[in-house]
Amino acid sequence: MPDSHRSLVTEALEALGVTRWVLSLHDPSFPGLPGEDLGRGSPYSEGAARFLAFARDLGFTGIQLGPQGQTSAHNPSPYDGTLFSRNTLNVALAPLTDPRGPWGALLSPDTLARLVSGMPERGGPAARYHHACRSQAQALQEAWDTFRRERARADAPASIASLARRFAAFREEHRAWLEPDALFDVLGAQKHTPDDWRDWADSLDGRLFAPRPGEEARAEARIRELLTLEAEAVEQYAFRQLLVAEQHGVLRERAAGWGLKLYGDLQIGFSPRDAWTRQGLFLRAYFMGAPPSRTNPEGQPWNYPVLDPEQYLTPDGGTPGPVLRFMEARLGKMLSEYDGLRIDHPHGLVCPWVYRAGASDPLRSVQGGARLFSSPDLPDHPELSRYALVAPEQLDRSQPRHGDGWVKWLTPEQVRRYALVFDTVVRAARERGRAREDVLCEVLSTLPFELSQVMARDGLGRFRVTQKADLNNPADVYRSENVAPEDWVMVGNHDTKSLWRLVSEWQWKHALRAQADYLAQRLHPEAEGREAFARQLAHDPGLLAQAKFADLFASRARSVMVFFADLLGMPETYNAPGTIDARNWSLRIPQDWAHQYGQRLRAGAALNLPQVLALALRAGGAEARIRHADLLARLDRAASHLRGGA
């Protein structure tokens, strides 16, 4: 889209008071080009660059990425990926074939062509993911072999010599996490249990970085032995991390040049690799999960480790202890790589829902769990009383223990103690110059009182996912009229159905009229003509979808986010929470996305941004329509053009 279109969008966003317009998109979903595609997307590919240029032209101010840690061959979920190591599936291979590029010709073009041509046409997303894992491993092995061979030459090419210097500096700077993460792979290969250390958890190797009292010297000696015997494997691991880190740096420079902020995802879970290297930081008797809620009545047993509250601070309580030092290291790395952060499930940092580890029925166990710091006297969880920050009289026993109002009131000192880990995140962001609005809190259907008090101190808002709104409850948290200026509002996210699929469901369930009546109230302030507008929405599902988007911009929120499937009119679901399905985490933008998007626009089946912004501006009433008459006319022309009009 031309610069004039981008300027038009920017002008409309300013008129609506929207300061952040962010596209949410995870790594595997980026499109590729025919000569580079192994079956999984990468944000560092040429196909991704072209799509991000399109996002810039739509006036987006930022891109919300998912977690970018290393995933395993059997589990593609980014929320189970590593916290420090980056996902080497993201290394774009085509740039490694360019002798004039920053990495020299590490990879043969013939190898890349062979791997691309081998992508399976059948077998679905699982087959494509496994092909991508195998092919990427082969390509990166060749890149490493080439680097080692060329580095050893007395007349090594200048590109290789430069890469070798950068590699040495990278290893030295990141040694603290590179070596433990690499040794996890080394030991997994030795014991034939890649990505799973449970079979050797009770051995010395299982606790190298959390030895028992008296084992410290043996553990240190074993680490030195492994680093010596497996020096090449450790070095190769670090080399792959260098490649993906440098390509991320290229993306960040490009995005900054386009005026796009990159937002990282501070996931709440730990990968098996991180659970192994950091096991000394966790409680042994409890896991973290999601309690029952309105949108998830059964709860979810995530099996994530729980950080030990007694290690937040040093024993004297005066300085950060092992847990806060770990968080500071993690945030230091993330904030050097992103312009802002999405805090995944901030409840886990403030008032985690915990349940007993090792239960034979994890789902039943999580349903009978409790909040770690808000359980002073529960008979079924007496162990939690030592961590309680509230007294029994501060609880409302008429509420379920997972209810938002279980804790009735808190003193300022109690809020401070609940906020110890959360404050580390906010403080790290501010010290590195991030704006308050660039810390996003993924609070969905539940907002416990404890968390609300912590977030209120920093003026942070929550997520409002409007497709989940209860149209029969005026106080529902997802209704757009209840959105606060500091909130982030969206029709859906990576864990919801596409709006376009929902509109189809509403149609065959005869629910369009209820949605139309609600949207007419929001977007047509004058009573005169509102009924006709509601009938029009009810009879035109495509227009109703555009109105659903407009409802976001007409709210008080300064920050609006859209998931890529909603933007492009894709009806498929990216992830269905609580399910194990090969289709999860696999939905991709197709190679011919521009053509498909154009077709859907003409059919009214994709986000027509000028049309949406015009609807939102008109929701301001007659005065707004007069004040923005010229802008509205230009938006209407642009919207008509996208629909195929003159």
UniProtKB/TrEMBL annotation:
It holds the Pfam family Glyco_hydro_77. Gene3D superfamilies: Glycosidases (3.20.20.80). It catalyses: Transfers a segment of a (1->4)-alpha-D-glucan to a new position in an acceptor, which may be glucose or a (1->4)-alpha-D-glucan. Its EC number is 2.4.1.25. GO terms for biological process: carbohydrate metabolic process. It is an enzyme of class 2 (transferase). It comes from the Bacteria. One of its GO terms (molecular function) is 4-alpha-glucanotransferase activity. The keyword Glycosyltransferase applies. The keyword Glycosyltransferase applies. Keywords: Carbohydrate metabolism, Glycosyltransferase, Transferase. Belongs to the disproportionating enzyme family. PANTHER family: 4-ALPHA-GLUCANOTRANSFERASE DPE1, CHLOROPLASTIC/AMYLOPLASTIC, 4-ALPHA-GLUCANOTRANSFERASE DPE1, CHLOROPLASTIC_AMYLOPLASTIC. This is 4-alpha-glucanotransferase. It comes from Corallococcus sicarius.
